[in-house]
Each structure stands twice: as C-alpha cells, then as structure tokens.
Specification:
Bound molecules: N-{4-[(3-aminopropyl)amino]butyl}acetamide, zinc ion
Structural class: alpha/beta
Shape: globular
Number of helices: 21
Length: 705
C-alpha cells in the first residue's frame, strides 16, 4: 500500500520538477520589482597617460571585464538598462566647490605635462583629457539610478562607473576619485526628493574619508565604512578612520568606522560586522534609501585589500541590506583591482539584487580575534548614540587601534599576510567554477480550499496524497484517533513537498497544516530519515521539540517566544528565548541580528524549518524578514510550516521566498525592553563557544556546561 503511494508521489514529483525550473531567467519589465543596470562605454575613456605604478591599477579594463562577465552570466540581460548622462555643474556643486569644479573642468584642454603637474597636487590621482566628462558621467549615472529607484521606476540597481568617488572631497581629488558620486547622490536624494535619512554603506577596502568629511556634521546621512587600517599604517593613514571617530556636532553617532587591523579578513569577519554593528544601527536609523559605495578591493585576490572574502560574501552583504528602506538600494562601483575577482563579486551582488537565492558562504564561520576587537571597540564607541547598543555592557576598549608596539599586538591574527599571488591557485579555483544555477522554484502545500492567491512565477502547488493512518502514526508518533482527514491530507502534501526540497527539485516551500506542532515533528523526522546532518528548526511561539528528537546532534532547535523550558538551558542544541515579549518588534529584531542569524550562519544548516506556532506574536512583516534573511545561511532551502489560521500569510511569504523586497519599511524603530535585551545578551554569551558568530568581543566566553 505504502509502496504504491510512494511511487505515485515520485511520478508527480518528476513531472512537476520540470515545470518548477521554467520561466526563471526572464527579465522583468520596469517597475518596483525590477533591477536597473547602468553602464556606458564612455566611462572607459579615462586612463593613465604616464608611468605611475600606484595609479596603474585603475584602468578601463575594470569596467569592460566586469560588464563582459555580467553579459556572459546573463545577468545584464535581466536588468532594466538605464542610460547614463553627464551631471550638470550645479549637481556637482551639491558637494564640491565651484573653484574645484573649475579646476577639473580645465583639464579638458590640458596637455600631458599639465595634467601630470595638476595630478601632483593631489594624493594618488591622475587626470586625462576625458576625466571631466567621465567623472561627470559617473556622477550622472549614479543620479539616474537614484532617480529611478526613488520614483519607483525600478526597485534597486547598480551603476558601473569610473572614476570612483568616495575619496573625493569638497575641494580635492584623491585616491583615483575626482567627484564624489555617492555623496552627490545622497545630497541629491535629500534636496531633490526630500529624503530625511540616507544610509551610505561603504564596503570598499579603503576608508571613504571624502564621504565621511562631507557628512561628518550631518545626522541625515548615516555613513558606515570598514577599511584596511593596520593601526593607521595603511593608506590613507588617517587618525580619523578609527572606530572612535563618530561624527561631529549634530552628526555625532552618524559616522561609523570599522578598522581592520589585520589583512586576511574573510567571510565570517564581514558578515559578523554587518550583523553586530551595521544592521542594528541601520534598523534603528530606518533609512529611506541605501547607497552602497560598492568597492570590491575588499574581495579575495585584490592586491590593495589583501583580504579573503569570497564573491559569495557580497551576495550575503547585499541580502542583509535589502530589508532596509523597502529594498531601495543603489550600488555604485568604487574600487576593485583584481579583474576576475572584481567581475565575479559584481555578478554576485547584482544577482542578489535580482532576487536570486544566495550561494553558501564558504570558510570557517568564526570571526578572528582582531576583527572581534574591532567589533567590540566600535560597538563601545557607538553605545552612547544608539539605543540598540545601549543595553550592552560593551565592556572596556581592549587595545586602541592606533596602538603600535614592537611588532604589533601578540598574534591576534586573521591569517597572515600574503602577496596577491599566494591566492592565485585558490582564486583560479574559486573564480573558474561554473556559476551557481539556482533552483528558484517555490513549492506550496496548501489546503484545497485555498484559492486565487497572487503568487510569484514558477510556483508549484503540491498535490501529494493523503497519508494513511498508519503512515501518520509512524511520522507523527501521535495516536491516529486525533488525526482528522484534513490533517492526513495536509501531512501527505507536506511530505511530498519536503521530498522535492530534499531532492533539490524545488528550492523552498510553504506548507499549511491544521496542527503545526505535529507537522513540525513530521518534517524533522522526514529530514532525518533522508539523512540530513544539520537541520535548523526556528520555532516561534508555543512549540516544543518531541523528546526523541532532542539532542541527537543533527537538529538545532531555536525557540523564540515560547514557554520557559528549563531543560533547554543545558542543551547545546536547544536555544530558547522565552516569553511572549520576545516576539515584540524591537526585541525580535534584536534577536534576529544578534542571536538567530549568527547561530544560523555558524551552524551552516542544510535545511531550515521556520514554524510560527500557536501564540506566535510576530508581525507579518517580521515573518517576511525572517523568511528573507534566514535563507542566507542555507542557500535558500527553507520550509515554512504555517497553521491553517495563518493562511493569509502565504502570499507575502511566498514572495519573500522568491526574493522580493519586503512589503513595507521596518521602521519606526522600537527598542527592546532592557530585560529582554539582557536575556538575549545572556544567551549569546552562554552559547558563543558553540556558535562563534555570536561573539561580539575579544574576551573569551564562559566554558560550556
Ligand atoms: N599601497 C579606491 O579604491 N593607493 N581608491 C594606495 C597603498 C591609493 C584606492 C597605496 C589607493 C586608492 C577607490
Ligand atoms: Zn578602494
């Protein structure tokens, strides 16, 4: 009997698998879900005319190689193409002085010697007769992108521009930068579109001291930058790049600097800084627009950065930013000097903007001691300015970043320094592998009564057969007398859907069941019987994991907002933040960034189950957010289990699984109650030895047990 059902299930599964894969590479028409790409060959005209090893790395092939790869991957074709334009002088003067604009304008008619002489007046800059036109176009391209996003013509986008902008100051060119593209765009968003809060995320490996200087007094622009610093020995070697420089006057707290004091920082270091520093502040700030100073010299292989973040890391960084400002994100190219690494990193960023699931993050999920010190220090420096950090006893600052002793602090190390060629063998491997071919198909297991939903494309509706009573007893371990026909039908569909997810035929799905705790136990047993080694179950509300599934080493159970469970305190695989206050917006957001996501990134699950159970007090927006972000650590393989009563959530969550922006902004900000905040802090400290991404300081945590 069971055999025949199984066979029938498999047949259905094969035929629908083909359907699930279709129709996913189509470009979207302009609209709030579309992604814009701006690229104009004119910006390849500017190039170095004389011998200068320092400037030679900033050449036209940076753009041509990147654009070629975007086309080769089929990514450029999926974007809405917007024309670039040259910014007006009035627009340049939103940030720059008329005198400086006139100086740059003068380069159009200069000869080589005059260009060279002018360049000597600045640090790490060259000029070309096309510099003025290209630099105006870099600004104009950025403004076109911002206008398209702010008018709703597109949802997000990227501008591939040269020259870069973030080192450029009101009166000076610097570090290959002529006009400050992103700073002008932020000013334009404020003045022309009336925005009150703009977030600038500068993930280039150099400090955007130009941008910082322009907005240091301005509380309407939150500027975040991480940068290679090495205790002030790395270019541009400025005291004002350190973590204790936080802005001035009304702008105090709105400049956030994360110095990297070692090279070799990798994926775990970058994601940790986003989770523990940038996101809490950005959520509290509640931006209306996110501008990314997207330099990829922070990527592996770059000769300037000497860091180790792989291209997928930029997919994760992008994913983590997309919930802000309802996804209104504009990425604008800054640095990036290893052509292959640059091109690949841009691909991963754009792919994420397009809503594709993010690939797994490789490498050790533990941040290094040096990055933990930076995290601790910047959190301590900002605790006075941000409610989301205030509850922390952030502890004393360990070592000032400017500390310079003999040979530096004792081996706190990220991996030791290496030359660019040391990475070449690894890089070739990393960059040559075929592009990820994401299964974007979503499956739904809904009651027959559910109909007329507005669902994303490539959704398949599961038709699985009802379970027999014997099967139901086997999977649920419950007496079948409690099982109604409806429940048997729901479990049958759930198992069929989970089969497809486990087999990789569908990436993610949603199942609705009348008894969600029984469904949860069934799904976990199914995952285990399939051979899952790491299964993360995030249960919200009053849900408990059956005795026989506890502590078997393959399941990590995270319960938010449930009843107090004393036994859980001693189990390493059971993490409970109890009490219904835990699902209030402020507390939940804090738990998400400081507990749920760090645990998930540390655990590296093969499958995530998300189960809003009885008494789940989460707003539907928070469910969307959880759905979107928890896909990061699991390559999108997620099954949501919903109670019948939650059926109205299906549409929004199906879109969240399919990669769409949140349906509204996260704001206004609520802060967690001090009691809840300290409960979260306590849990994080207690578990940080098992789950290293929970760490926020260089101090060792308590020993387990
Ligand atoms: N050896 C951008 O990435 N040279 N500018 C530093 C250190 C200047 C970088 C020399 C680097 C400028 C946009
Ligand atoms: Zn740079």
């Amino acid at each position: 009997m069971r055999g025949r059902r199984e066979a029938a299930r498999t047949r259905r599964l094969r035929s629908s698998a083909a359907r699930a894969g279709s129709g996913m590479a189509e470009s979207r028409p302009p609209g709030p879900q579309a992604t814009a790409l701006i690229y104009d060959e004119d910006m390849t005209r500017v190039r170095l005319l004389w011998d200068d090893p320092e400037c030679a790395i900033e050449g036209p092939e940076r753009l041509t190689a990147t654009y070629a790869r975007l086309c080769h991957r089929g990514l450029a074709q999926r974007c809405v193409r917007l024309p670039a334009r040259e910014a007006t002088e009035e627009e340049l003067e939103l940030v720059h002085s008329p005198e400086y604009v006139a100086v740059v304008k003068g380069t159009q008619t200069m000869n080589k010697e005059e260009l060279h002489n002018l360049a000597q007046q600045y640090d790490a800059v060259y000029f070309h007769p096309s510099t003025f036109s290209c630099a105006r176009m870099a600004v104009g391209a950025t403004l076109q992108l911002v206008d398209a996003v702010l008018t709703g013509a597109v949802g997000n986008g990227m501008a591939l521009v040269r020259p870069p902008g973030h080192h450029s100051q009101r009166d000076a060119a610097n570090g290959f930068c002529v006009f400050n593209n992103v700073a002008i765009a932020a000013e334009h968003a404020k003045r022309r579109h009336g925005l009150q809060r703009v977030l600038i995320v500068d993930w280039d490996i150099h400090h955007g001291q130009g941008t910082q200087g322009i907005f240091e007094n301005d509380p309407s622009v939150l500027y975040f930058s991480w940068h290679r610093y090495e205790h002030q020995s790395f270019w541009p070697r400025l005291r004002e790049s350190d973590y204790d420089v936080v802005g001035q006057g009304p702008g105090r707290g709105f400049t956030v600097n994360v110095p990297w004091n070692k090279v070799g920082m990798g994926n775990a270091d970058y994601v940790s800084v986003f989770l523990h520093v940038l996101l809490p502040l950005a959520i509290e700030f509640d931006p209306e627009l996110v501008l990314v100073s997207a330099g990829f010299d922070s990527g592996i292989g770059d000769p300037e950065g000497q860091m180790q973040a792989t291209p997928e890391c930029f997919a994760h960084l992008t994913l983590l930013l997309l919930p802000l400002a309802r996804g209104r994100l504009c990425a604008v190219l800054e640095g990036g000097y290893h052509l292959q690494s640059l091109a690949e990193c841009v691909c991963l960023t754009l792919q994420t903007l397009l809503g594709d699931p993010v690939p797994a993050l490789s490498g050790d999920p533990a941040p290094c001691l040096s990055s933990l010190e930076s995290i601790q220090n910047v959190r301590a420096a900002h605790a006075p300015h941000w409610a989301s950090l205030r509850h922390e006893d952030t502890g004393p600052i360990l070592t000032p970043s400017t500390w310079r002793g003999d040979g530096g602090p004792p081996s706190l190390g990220a991996q030791s320094t290496g030359t660019a060629d040391r990475w070449e063998p690894l890089l070739d491997k990393l960059l040559s592998c075929s592009p990820p071919s994401p299964h974007t198909g979503i499956g739904l297991a809904l009651p027959d009564s559910a109909s007329s939903l507005h669902l994303p494309p490539a959704v398949l509706q599961e038709q699985g057969l009802s379970l027999s009573e014997e099967e139901a007893v086997m999977w649920s371990r419950l007496d079948s007398a409690f099982m109604q026909d409806q429940a048997l039908a729901a479990l049958g569909k759930l198992l069929a859907l989970l089969d497809k997810i486990l087999a990789g035929q569908v990436r993610a799905g949603i199942a609705v069941a009348p008894e969600v705790s029984a469904a949860m136990a069934v799904a976990i047993r199914k995952g285990l019987s399939w051979g899952a080694q790491r299964l993360l179950c995030v249960a919200i509300g009053d849900l408990d994991i059956p005795e026989d599934l506890r502590d078997n080493g393959h399941i990590l159970f995270l319960n938010i907002g449930g009843k107090e469970q004393l036994e859980a305190a001693s189990s390493p695989t059971c993490i409970c933040l109890s009490g219904h206050e835990a699902t209030e917006p402020g507390t939940f957001l804090l738990a998400l960034t400081s507990l749920i996501l760090p645990v998930a990134y540390s655990f590296q699950p093969e499958l995530v189950l998300v189960v809003p159970g009885p008494g789940c007090g989460l707003r539907s927006l928070d469910m969307e957010l959880l759905t979107r972000l928890l896909q990061g650590p699991v390559e999108g393989r997620m099954l949501l289990l919903l109670q019948d009563a939650e059926l109205p959530l299906v549409e929004a969550l199906a879109w969240a699984l399919a990669g769409r922006a949140l349906s509204s902004t996260l704001g206004p900000f609520f802060s967690a109650s001090p009691k809840q905040a300290s409960a979260i802090t306590h849990l994080c400290r207690q578990r940080q030895l098992y789950w290293p991404m929970l760490q926020v300081s260089g101090n060792p945590g308590p020993s387990p047990g």
